[in-house]
Specification:
This protein is about 30% helix and about 25% strand. It contains 7 helices and 12 strands. Helix 3 packs across helix 6 and helix 4 crosses helix 5. The radius of gyration is 21 Å and the shape is globular.
Length: about 260
């Protein structure tokens, strides 16, 4: 059986915060905001389900688990059962006490007891987050880590290939992954969960959200599979008339193409 796990975080919907609250220069109150899956984590959740469908078509038996830390949000958690997850786990505790390494160790402690072949996460949970939880998680589990995944290539479990983003749409690389591994999802081609039916929602209410008590696991150093290349850029100011600027721009474009 192939075991796929997706780590996600439930965050406030920041779009509900008035602009004036942002302009105060302080972290705004979010207690009144509705809750949602963080955007990158939602992309990871959808990719986990698509990966399950892809492997099932290849004849594999696949089990998917969605794992989160922090306070229980029943509606959003049962929604993942409706979306197609086989198991939803909430690790209740201090949620790493606001420390990315602590959160990663709590997740790692769960995966030491419940191993997974592939662990997917979002690149980061929110605008202020460091985006280091996936790396810390991979380190704690002594697994390779592949960041900035945007999509996957159909194939068998033994030869899973994912596409990692560099700096732009034209700069992507295919990376062959051997399980077990941790993948963090970046600007994915599909960034939202597919809508589920009301019938699936009603059936999901009968399923149990698994509760676990948070406990830390030892840390380590991550083995990074791939790091996106950074492009060197420069700025050239055009001078002269519009016609002169156009000719100069054409020359630079041609020079770059020929080079």
């Amino acid at each position: 059986m192939v075991k796929i796990a997706v780590c996600f975080k439930i965050v406030p919907d920041y779009e509900e915060i008035p602009v004036l609250d942002w302009q105060k220069g302080e972290i705004p109150d979010t207690t009144y905001c509705k809750k949602m899956y963080s955007c990158f984590d939602e992309a990871a959740l959808e990719m986990g389900l698509r990966l399950k469908d892809m492997l099932t078509e290849k004849g594999e038996t696949v089990r998917t688990t969605a794992v989160t830390t922090g306070p229980r949000q029943a509606t959003l958690l049962t929604g993942l059962y409706a979306a197609g997850y086989d198991r939803v786990v909430c690790i209740e505790g201090e949620d790493g006490a606001g420390d990315p390494a602590g959160t990663a160790r709590e997740l790692a402690a769960y995966f030491i007891e419940e191993p997974a072949d592939l662990i997917l996460t979002g690149r980061q949970a929110g605008g202020w987050d460091s985006g280091t939880v996936p790396a810390y998680l991979a380190a704690a589990l002594s697994m390779p880590w592949l960041p900035e995944v945007v999509c996957m290539v159909p194939g068998e479990m033994k030869r899973l290939t994912f596409v990692a983003d560099c700096e732009s749409e034209t700069e992507r690389e295919r990376i062959l992954i051997h399980a077990p591994a941790v993948l963090s999802i970046g600007n994915a081609d599909v960034s939202y969960l597919w809508m589920f039916s009301l019938k699936a929602r009603l059936e999901a209410r009968k399923k149990e959200i698994v509760s676990r008590t948070a406990k830390p696991a030892p840390g380590g150093a991550p083995h990074i599979v791939y790091v996106p290349r950074k492009k060197e850029t420069s700025c050239t100011m055009m001078e002269g008339t519009i016609e002169e600027q156009a000719r100069a721009l054409h020359g630079l474009v041609r020079e770059g193409r020929d080079g």
